[in-house]
Structure formats: structure tokens, C-alpha cells
Amino acid sequence: MTNEHSRSKYISLILILGTLTALGPFSIDMYLPGFPAIGKDLGVDPSRVALSLSSFFIGISAGQLLYGPLLDRFGRKKPLYIGLFLYVISSIGCIYASSLNGLIALRFIQAIGSCAAAVASVAMVRDLFPVNENAKVFALLMLVVGTSPMIAPTVGSYVTSAFSWHAVFLILGIMGAMILLATIFWLPESYKPDTSMSLKPRPIINNFLQVVSEPQFYTYCFAGAISFSGLFAYVSASPQVFMDIFKLSDKAYGWVFAFLSIGLIGSSQVNSLMLKRFKSEQIVPVALTAQTLTGAVFVLCAWNNWLSLAGTITLLFIFLCCLGFINPNTAALSLAPFTKNAGSASSLMGAVQMGIGSLASTVVSLYNTHTATPMAITMCGSSLLALLILVICGRNIKTAGTAGASAPAMAH
């Protein structure tokens, strides 16, 4: 009976932590099929609606740095309550948004709220489970994160078709409320508040400066983040490319988005097998070079109007497959030099990734030519810049990290 109770408790914890982890990806991807409808209702070009996606990325970037110290200072649940409450209120606000600027502001607040769920779930895995089970639990949560981009746009497309884009935010608000209730009643507090933890800006900033001064961190963190920003450009521009240029229905777009997500998820799993024979330091430059060449072909084809629907999907699939090899290895190599400041390094890496990603998303949204060219140029440029950073800054790394044999199979 005791074993059954323990197993039941284990499953309930995994389910709650899994829903906390999935909240962010669902919030990003579920409303993408509604871009044309949102643009029509708010009186703006659908490509401009992507600015609300950029503001969401900025909110997540800021939240990464905000919640780390708060979760240590006040325990895990209180900041989580505040974040989820903000999420629910802002989701309801999005339903009644009457202007693009209003939607952009509400999405920023929604991101700040959802970020609490993402950061707290990672911290609570370390708190609640034995060290030897952490990898297993993280693998389960990564599976949730990986499948969310496949499910969310497809669900969003059917909800938008059957009801309206407003219903998507209603569903997200209900999800947030249910997760908040589950957190209150079934998720235990896993960390005693640390009153010695300083929330003053200077010690926090000094801690981050120590992290960013490490050559291995800034080389792989920025190379990985800039490369990953190509994904943000794709996510922001894909509704216009597929639904406006290629005239796909919102349902068809949802299925295409789901298919392309398989490239990122599948290659990240293949990466785990590759690490049995190769080091992360060997995989990253090869994958980055392949990604840059794919981006160059994409630019050439987009510029000359040679792209068909099948060609666009093929190039995007290859590009995302490259990311599946780059992202987990750059993440592992970035964090490898740290023991004491691993938490700060992790939150800073997440903030850099989301910050640069939001910039790429904004660039694609502002330079709308009703072609795939802005997306292709941004994706190619991000890969080329990342490769240059790896080559130039990599010379400053004195000793290679040992993370190559244990890089996690991370997805988006």
C-alpha cells in the first residue's frame, strides 16, 4: 500500500511539474494559427501581430533573471502563485484586447507569469527528487516541452476555426487557473526560504558578471543563443509564410508546424546517440556549418522566388534538425565550467537566448515584404554570426569542458 501511495504521489508530482513546463510552449504556439484573424480584428497586417510574440519572448527573458533570486529568497510556491495569477489575469485580458499595442503589453505580462512556472519546475525537480532520478525526471519534462509545439498549433487551429482566436486565450487562462489550483493543493513546498539571499542589484549583477567573464560560457552561450534565434524568426514568420504566401488553411498550417517540430525533437534524440561516439565540441561546429549552408540556400531560393511549398518545408526541416544538434551541446558546454554559480549561469543563458530570440522575432515582424526573404535572411544571418563567434571566441577557451559525454537531449 505504501509503494502504491508513493507511486501515486510520484505520478502526481510529474503531472503537475509537466503542466508547469508546458505552459510556456503552449502560450507561444497555440495562438499562431490565429494571426490572420487577430490582424483582421485589430486592423493591422498579420505580420505585425508577431510583435506580440516578440514581447512574449522579451517577458520570458526578463523573467529568467527575475525569478531565480525570488525562488531562493521566498521559497518556491509564493513566487509561483504570483506568476500563475499574473498569467491567468493577463490571459483574460488578451481576450478583450482591442488594439495591437494592448495585446503586446498583455502578452509581455503573460510571459512574466508563465516564466515563473518554467523556472520553478526546474528548481523543484532538484528539490523533490533524489539526485540519481533527476535526469529521468528532466527527460520526461523535456518530452513534454518537445511535444508541445506539435500539439499546441494544431489544437489552436481547430479552436480558431470552430470559435475564434479569443477562445485560444480563454483556454490558456483556464489552463493557468487549473495549474494554480493544482499547485496550491497538491504541490508541496520544496525549499525553505533563504533569508540570507540578497535581492539587492549589486551582488546579483556581480554574480552574473563572474559567469559571463568565463570564455567557455560566453563562447557557447552566445553561439548557441544566436543560432537558436533562427527558430524564433521561423516561429514569428511562419504564419504569414504558410497562410498568406502559400494560402494554407489554419488547420493545414497547424499540421505543417507539427511536422517541422519533429525535425527539432528527432535530431535532439539522435544527438544523444551521437554523443556516445563524439564530443559536444566536435558536433557543434559541424552542425553550425550545415545550418549556415542551409540558410544560404534558403536565402538564394527566397530572393529569386524559387521556393515552392515543398521546398520551403524541406529547408526549414533541415535547419531545425541542425538546431537539434546545436542547442543541447552548446547548453551543456556553457554550463560545464560551473559548480557554485550553476543556477546563475543557467538563468543567464536562458535570458540571453530569449533576449536574442525576441530581437530576431522583432526584425522579421518589422521587415515584411510578403515573401519568405526576411525569414530566410534572419535565419541565415543568425547561423553565420553564431559560427563566427564560435571560431573567434573559441580561441579563448583554455581547456575544453567535459560536458560532451553528457549533453542533455534538450528540445525547444
TrEMBL record:
Pfam families: MFS_1. It is found in: Cell membrane. Keywords: Cell membrane, Membrane, Transmembrane, Transmembrane helix, Transport. It is a multi-pass membrane protein. InterPro entries: Efflux_drug-R_Bcr/CmlA, MFS, MFS_dom, MFS_trans_sf. The chain crosses the membrane at residues 10-28, 48-67, 79-98, 104-125, 137-159, 165-187, 217-237, 252-271, 283-300, 347-367, 373-393. Residues 13-398 form the Major facilitator superfamily (MFS) profile domain. The keyword Transport applies. Belongs to the major facilitator superfamily. Bcr/CmlA family. This is Multidrug effflux MFS transporter.
